[in-house]
C-alpha cells in the first residue's frame, strides 16, 4: 500500500472515530487485526455492537475508481463478517446484536474532509 493511501486511511479512520464518538458511540477498538484482515472500528451504539468499515478516497481522483462506499464489495463484506465472528469469539460476545456500517470519507488536497457519509446497516 502506498504511503499516500495509508495517510488517507489514517485521516479517514480518525475522522470516523471522532464523529462516531460525537454521536454517542463507544469505541471499543480500532484497527483490530488478525492474520485474515483488520476491522477498522468496533463500537457500541446503544445495545448494539457495530462493526464499521471505513473507506477513504482522495477528492483529486474525481471518482475515477468509484466511490468509497462502492469499494465495499461482496468479497469485502464477507471478509468483514468473518472478522466480526472472530472478534465476537475472542471477546466472548456470542449473543450480541450486531450491525455492519460503512463510513465513506473523501479527503481534499490539504487533508480536509470534503465529504463524509455514514451508511448504517450497509450490509
TrEMBL record:
GO molecular function: nucleic acid binding
Name of a matching Pfam family: UPF0102
InterPro entries assigned to the protein according to its UniProt record, in alphabetical order: Restrct_endonuc-II-like, tRNA_endonuc-like_dom_sf, UPF0102_YraN-like
Coiled coil: none
Top-rank taxon, per record: Bacteria
HAMAP family in the record: UPF0102
Protein family per UniProt: Belongs to the UPF0102 family.
Name of the protein in question: UPF0102 protein DX130_05485
Organism: Paenibacillus paeoniae
Taxonomic classification: Bacteria, Bacillati, Bacillota, Bacilli, Bacillales
